[in-house]
Design goal:
One of its GO terms (molecular function) is NAD+ binding. It comes from Polymorphobacter multimanifer. One of its GO terms (cellular component) is cytoplasm. This protein is α/β, with parallel strands linked by helices. It is built from 9 helices and 13 strands. The protein has one domain: Rossmann fold (3-Layer(aba) Sandwich), CATH 3.40.50.720. Strands 3-2-1-4-5-6-11 form a 7-stranded parallel sheet, sandwiched between helices. A two-stranded parallel sheet has the order 7-10. Strand 1, helix 1 and strand 2 form a beta-alpha-beta unit. Helix 7 crosses helix 9. The longest helix has 22 residues. The N and C termini lie far apart (about 45 Å). Bound molecules: nicotinamide-adenine-dinucleotide and uridine-5'-diphosphate (2 copies). One uridine-5'-diphosphate binds next to helix 3. The site of nicotinamide-adenine-dinucleotide has 29 residues, from helix 1, helix 3 and strand 5.
Length: about 325
């Protein structure tokens, strides 16, 4: 059945892919964004579509629209962006969650929160199951993001318990793909852009820290599947690709495909940088029948093709 769906942060990397999938499934989509890290270009191909509406708005302010469901993705996601104005980052997660939950409460609409693996901080348990409470520094440079997202989860569960709201909480692990911001400082976009420009690849620390990288199409499939689970199932659910790589291995994989003269340049490790990160996706498999399909090399090839076009080379 066709629905009217609000996507906050809809002009961002993940949000724009979600808008594509929802429009493709026949829904009406309101794409809301303040364009802090998102761009009209990400949804330019949807402008003019009769079921698509683009709205400039900041989620830290109240919003009065009429919708059946809400995907709350508004929040800068890369450390460079979220540390640029850390107070605004916390406000976006916390005030944004309150406003979107207030909206969902008035409308009795289902609402999904884009939470993050960062709620696990620098984890002592590996891989991380949803039952793990995490190890987060409350006062460091990453805290505006990590604690903001943790507080948003708290608000979601309190609105659920206190007001019976129909919530879904998704913990997203590192995701990459076309429409990542080339200057957002995340590792996959950095390495690809550096390799394409023939610049040195910046490895922070010794490069032995690990991350698990999920291709965007897999992630969005999991997000929509979670939104469509039965009422009463709240999550949190980890969505990510358990394939775990060191940053050195990632650099090699990018250089294997791009070629060129780039060398590795070792730089200081940022404060509170987690050593390792891998999702336990047992719950997603059981509840959503979901598993990622796109292997790293295939996803990298599609992402490299995107950046090649975007950089005009
Ligand atoms: P992104 O920066 O591309 O997208 C975020 C979007 O939110 C942007 O379009 C930005 O302009 C918008 N935005 C920011 N503050 C806003 C505000 N106050 N009001 C309205 N819009 C605002 O990042 P992304 O990778 O697409 O991330 C989307 C969501 O997924 C975020 O909530 C992020 O925390 C979460 N997430 C992403 C990843 C990942 O690896 N990409 C991992 C974990 C969680
Ligand atoms: N809100 C909104 N749109 C709505 C309803 C509420 O933006 O349609 C915001 C409003 O700013 C409110 C917040 O959501 O302060 C929380 O709403 P709730 O009903 O939980 O609390 P209250 O209205 O009592 O503050
Ligand atoms: N990183 C790196 N070089 C870069 C950018 C990032 O070695 O140019 C490292 C970073 O220190 C971290 C990992 O790559 O260990 C992932 O960083 P990203 O910012 O993409 O995501 P997050 O730390 O939020 O998982």
């Amino acid at each position: 059945m066709s629905k009217r769906i609000l996507v906050t942060g809809g002009a961002g990397f993940l949000g724009s892919h979600l808008c594509d999938v929802l429009i493709g499934a026949g829904h009406d989509v309101i794409c809301l964004d303040n364009f802090f890290t998102g761009a009209k270009a990400n949804v330019a191909h949807l402008l003019g579509h009769p079921r698509f509406e683009l709205m400039r708005h900041d989620v830290t302010f109240p919003l009065y629209v009429e919708v059946d469901a809400i995907y709350n993705l508004a929040c800068p996601a890369s450390p460079v962006h979220y540390q640029h104005d850390p107070v605004q980052t916390t406000k976006t997660s916390v005030h944004g969650a309150i406003n979107m939950l207030g909206l969902a409460k008035r409308l009795r609409a289902r609402i999904l929160q884009a939470s993050t693996s960062e709620v696990y901080g620098d984890p002592e348990i590996h891989p991380q199951p949803e039952s793990y409470w995490g190890r987060v520094n409350p006062i460091g440079p990453r805290s505006c993001y990590d604690e903001g997202k943790r507080c948003a989860e708290t608000l979601f569960f309190d609105y659920h318990r206190q007001h019976g709201l129909d919530i879904k909480v998704m913990r997203i692990f590192n995701t990459y793909g076309p429409r990542m911001h080339p200057g957002d400082g995340r590792v996959v976009s950095n390495f690809i852009v550096q390799a394409l420009k023939g610049e040195d690849i910046t490895i922070y620390g010794d490069g032995q820290q690990t991350r698990s990288f999920c291709y965007v199409d897999d992630l969005i499939t999991g997000m929509v599947a979670l939104m469509e689970t039965e009422k009463g199932f709240t999550g949190p659910v980890n969505i990510g690709n358990p394939g775990e790589f060191t940053m050195l291995a990632l650099a090699e994989a990018v250089l294997r495909q791009v070629g060129g003269p780039s060398k590795l340049r070792f730089m200081p490790l940022p404060q509170d940088d987690p050593r390792q990160r891998q999702p336990d996706i047992t719950l997603a498999a059981a509840k959503l029948g979901w598993a990622p399909r796109v292997p790293l090399d295939d996803g990298l090839a599609r992402t490299i093709a995107y950046f090649r076009t975007r950089l005009g080379g």
